[in-house]
Write a structure and sequence with these properties.
single chain, about 130 residues, mainly beta, Jelly Rolls, seven-stranded mixed β-sheet, 2 helices, about 10% helix, Exported protein, Saro_0823-like_sf, DUF192
Length: about 130
């Protein structure tokens, strides 16, 4: 039961719009490392929230990830700093998707979800 992934609802604020997203929370090194590996599909308004113990610099890769994803990198206040699109990769020779900035959180969703919901860099995520 210890490795069970908890879920929570977050809100993304874009101007006057509020978009809700249900996320699985990856907040331990093992959960962060596994991420969405080996997941066959993701419901439209669901994703994964990565919570780091401290500010990090570096990227994500898509090793053994079967679905295309978009990822948003956030600062400590929940402001979206950068959004990148990532393609699945099976095997060991997978590219690193690096935002080239420091961040505290990352959110992975289905490819294009941020764009479809008119969410952009500079928007804010509320975690409560």
């Amino acid at each position: 039961m210890r490795n069970r992934i908890k879920t929570r609802m977050i809100k993304i604020l874009s101007g006057n719009r509020e978009t809700r997203l249900t996320v699985q929370v990856a907040d331990t090194p093992s959960k962060i490392e596994k991420g969405l590996m080996f997941v066959g599909g993701l419901p439209e308004n669901e994703g994964m929230l990565f919570v780091f113990a401290r500010q990090v610099y570096g990227g994500f890769w898509m090793k053994n990830t079967f679905i295309p994803l978009s990822i948003a990198f956030l600062d400590a206040d929940g402001r979206i700093l950068k959004i990148l699109d990532m393609v699945p990769c099976i095997g060991d020779n997978c590219p690193i998707y690096n935002p080239n900035l420091f961040y505290y959180y990352a959110i992975e969703v289905n490819l294009g979800w941020f764009k479809r919901n008119q969410i952009k860099e500079g928007d804010y995520v509320q975690f409560n």
